[in-house]
Amino acid sequence: NDPDAVTVARENIKKNRLEEKIAVSTTPVVHIQEIFPLVCANIVHDVLVEMAGTLAGLTAPGGHLVLAGILSGDQEENIVKVYRDLGLHPLDRHSQEEWAALLLRRD
Q: Strand 99-106 to strand 88-96: parallel, antiparallel, or no bridges (unpaired)?
């Protein structure tokens, strides 16, 4: 939902020669009809909660969802609860300073 973030992501994908494996777009997520084995979202807590149903729906059964942009602690725990209620279970967590990232797997 941020054109600048899409531009930076494209540059990083190109630097890592992953153009054949990773796609980024400015298409609003609610307009995407496909499901994917891997979905990544680096957005603040409130937006991740608001988009939970959409992001869960984009993640294929057995697929993974990576969420970042979350403050460690209460926000992190709330995200785990919201997504667990949608059938996504935490596999791993990483923190750096006050920020957390989660790896979730969809049933």
A: antiparallel
